[in-house]
Amino acid sequence: MRVSKRASSAVALGAAFALVASGCSSSDGDGGDAGASSDGAITIDGTQPEVGLVPSNTTETGGGAIIDWIWTGLVEYPNDGSAPRNAVAESIETTDSKVYTIKIKKDTKFHDGTVVKAKNFVDAWNWGAYSPNGAQNGSFFGDIQGFADVHTEDPDGADGPQKAPEPKAKEMSGLKVVDDFTFEVTLAAPTAVFPTKLGYSTFMPLPDAFFTQGAEAFGKKPIGNGPIKFVSWEDDVQIKLTRFDDYSLNDKMKIKDVNIKLYQDDTAAYNDLLAGNLDFQQQVPVSAIAGDKWKTDLADRAIASTTPSTGIIAFPIYDKRFQNPKLRRAISMSINRQEISDKIFFGSRKPADSWANPLTPGAKAGNCTACQFNVEEAKKLYAESGGFSGELVMYYNADASHKEWMEAVAQQVKTNLGINARAEGVPTFAVFRQNINAGKMTGMYRAGWQQDYPDVENWVGPLYVTGGSSNDGKYSNPQVDALAKEAASAPSLEASHAKYAEAVALIDQDVPSIPVYFGGQQSGHSEKIKKLELSNVGELDLTSVEL
User: Fold this and answer.
1) Which of 286, 295, 307, 358 could form a disulfide with 365 if both were Cys (CB 3.0 to 4.6 A apart)?
2) pLDDT average, residue stretch 497-502
3) Residue 131 sits in which domain range?
């Protein structure tokens, strides 16, 4: 879902990483006058975060982008999609891919002036993993020895969710502070991909103030350690950020202030962009893509990029009506993805044909057989499933351009299978996500995945392993879980990717969700911005902006 840009020395991970097409823009020959940027300010578009800004509790892009901007992790993911590189980490060393010694730089600070120390990582990870704290990203710490002792899942029985048992411990046995700037991580089994994960926001450090204030208060006034710091938050209106002048790493801010305007409608944001009232919009509305209108409107301020993200429609498998895999496969195969790409997205998105975005290291193209458009097979499977009674509602958040394609999908399902299907909008992304997290979805719903770190594991573990942080539909297959566990402990990335391919083959038979399109992004900026870069997932790299 979320990745951020930082820069420093390289981490040797022994693998080649796919390059991701990333946008950059310069409105003049010299790339702008950095000196003129130093006290400048910009306004960019955003969405209301679902919850408070706590790294291990944020699973959506509205809050995730802000966390990416105000925190710096142990490693960073370069804008060009190349291999992760050290950021706060001075070194990450291992001889067996099981025990990692991590040394951090001694001159980094939190925004409250306190020094970032090894214990700030250890304490943050223990807090995120301890299940009574309710961190949505808790499962990302599952590689670490002792995770099972601090994290218990709610046992879902015939009477619905039950209270989870109290964990045996409050801290994972696999984390040990060696000295102020060194800590040791022992994993439950060798995990070659572990260093790759460490730039994801879940693994960010937390200052001592977090533990004295509590998560709720901290989340409304977060204290990070990145190049830009939090100023204020007015719900559904704006979030203000400003440069952190004591930031000591290479990627310092060239401008001073950033105002994130929280829109409920992407067309309104686009109109502000055209009027010069908005300086950056990450994704222009679909209506502006028709006939390349956005390119005409913005000229050299239009940026096209390709990102490792996929548009998905998910099933609430906790609803008995959606528990037959033949029904789910029939619905998926009744969707003409090429038609949606051509007629709704005007060719700016590609039809999805695999479970992991093919830009991701370890991903296999074409492995989603359920993504094939085959009305005859879909009707056969639908009949074998026993059909679907009543109205099939497909929900989407109405504050972005999802209405057209969701309505198109609903109409295709209605036409090709005879199901009484329709699409319905939920006013805001925050409310939409709250309903999903509460397990209250009464129909299929729009989803999407933007990779957190560059490895196919990120497209399996969080989404399709039992208890995964973003397994919102509550899909569960013990064989998938077992293969994912084998993949995680494989001796090499190559062996790991082979096991994940086996797991994906089972996922393809179960069809727990429906991949629809691969992400293409159309961004725009104002004349004020002379130079910028996008991260490898299409977010604005605020440290690159020059005015």
Assistant:
1) 358
2) 96
3) 41-262
